[in-house]
């Protein structure tokens, strides 16, 4: 349990750092609808794209509070990193997966209504589960994240199903 909590706290920090790196100049509309805009930049072999048609759903519902306009996808050194900012709250998402024909999620962090949720498999301890399907440049990540309610960490494990759909140009 201590390892899971430590991994969850680490993922919260990663989500916070990645959120801080996101563009705060985007719309602050908290509407959870998919974003249509897209832009791509390349710097030194790193492909960075602000994606279109992004969706983040937890338990089948749009994750309110995630700024979908801030979602970025960075491809570098055999990895794909997806991260978002929040629109006035603590909600957020961060994903690291392999950049191969059949990508695998290495780590995933979600902050949902005060709960820090994660998917990871490190040091022989698996937390949650995730599968990735690819359709062209669109990645759909589905699974179940586990973690703790940060307002009441002694309440036991929290598990939530999620779907993240992002286009990485």
UniProtKB/TrEMBL annotation:
GO cellular-component term (any): membrane
Pfam families in the cross-refs: Myco_19_kDa
Metal-binding keyword on record: no
Tagged with keyword ATP-binding: no
Region (Disordered): 25-54
Keyword list, A-Z: Cell membrane, Lipoprotein, Membrane, Signal
Composition bias type Low complexity, residue spans: 25-45
UniProt signal peptide: 1-20
Protein's name according to its UniProt entry: Lipoprotein LpqH
